[in-house]
Amino acid sequence: MFSNIITETRGEDTMVRYYCTAGNGMQSFLVEEVKKKLAARDVHQIPGKVLFSSSATIQRVCDLKAAERLFLLLKQDSPVGMSTHTSPAKTASVLRSRLLGDRRQWLSAVMTWSRLQRELAASRSAVTTSNTHGVREKGRGSERQSDEGKKCHQESRKRSHSFTAEESDEKRQRGREQIRRHALELEKDDDVKESEEVCANYSKKDLEQNVESCSKNMKNMDDLGEDAPLESVENVSFRINCKCSGSLSRCAGAQEVSKVMGAGLSKLLGWKADLKNPKLEISVFLSDDYCLLGIPLTRLPLANRSYIKSTGLRSTIAWAMASLAQIQPGFRVVDPMCGVGTILIEAANEHKAACFLGVDIDDGQLQKADENIAFAELQGRVHLLKASSKALPLPSASVDAVVCDLPFGRKFSTRVNMADNLPLILSEMERVLCVGGTLVVLLSPQLSCLLKKLLSHTHSGPKGNKEDESQTGIKNCLVSSSEQQISQIQSSSSQEALTISSLRHQTTLRVSLGAIDGLIHKYIKTPD
Predict the structure, then answer these.
(1) Contact assessment for residue 336 and residue 369, using Cβ atoms and an 8 Å cutoff
(2) The dihedral of CA 427, 428, 430, 431: what is its sign?
């Protein structure tokens, strides 16, 4: 049935039903985030998506870090089941009855969507007004500086007309009176001229240019980033975006479902289909597990961070790694292979009272990281250092958390042979960690297997301290070349392996990185 979008209330706040898409392995992070940040209720998880209700402002909802896309939930229902032998006419009839529903429910949902869009537009307008106010304050500061300079010049002119001590008192007095009157007249004239000049030069030119620039930027942001609220729910242009999977896709493809939905909505609501520039987009997800309809609330994914200039590791994964580190106020956090600084920026934005250090050996990566940190306005809290991860210039036990994405060598090339140097790199990470400190690393499936094999030789304690093979799901992930790398580590790095014996495994999570998966490992440093 259709979601009860706006009738459930808590106090005077309206509860809205949303859902977010999330990458593989990120659903659990998103569930915890909506509960913690939004006080969400009725949180429900389905493959690739998290559904929840919240009375939080739309601005707070859009600030979710573990989500990919955000939708207003229209409908959640059981799967649409049909046989491959069902006739096209019967298929269309079933789809209409299951997906369209009642006219009033559609109109109510669209009104809620439009209200949320107005709230987002008001938020953007407030940001623009704040920026314009800053420009005006800057202009007033320039005027005040100009006033002070003019007054200093006038005082200088007064002093230059002073008489010498040899002149008579009467002449000196008359001269002072004349100068005082003349100076007052000059000051009055100069102030008027100065005010006119400042207003003409700044207010009519610079301020208008800045306001015009802000207006253009606002318009561009509207065109690129957000939907405009609807003035009316009648005569709305729309587009259907459908994804079908499982058995349903064999008897009704996405194009057929979109065609049936489009014709049905046009007849039910009088709306007009527009594939190029619609005011409203309806997303339909049909699978063997669920039937889900929603309206996107933003054009750009939430995962596209406005405060990151050059992208590296996916921002949602970087945020998840930082959350696993359980950073507390006053913590010293290090990323020994920071790249462009994505993990550091995500962590610093979330944890305002911690100190962060990024280390990398590559000048190009450090330059991009420096630009990203400046772009995010985090220069005072995130610092960079050129050094090797195999010899960190930090005292032992000086760091509370180490968070690191060990390069896979796919997106960015690396000079380090990670398989050969993994024991030494891990040893350095452990050395700088204080007892009780947290290590969070992201590894490729191959490096993950190497790490597990390496640590298995350093622990002879109970099984609870070892990584659970069923949890990692990587038992057979290595190819023959990687098996040779394991043998090399076992034979040549047994002494190095003994230096990381204080790392105790906590959890391993598989996450999607797009073309391949990665595995996040979390360890706690214990006393030797």
Answers:
(1) no
(2) positive
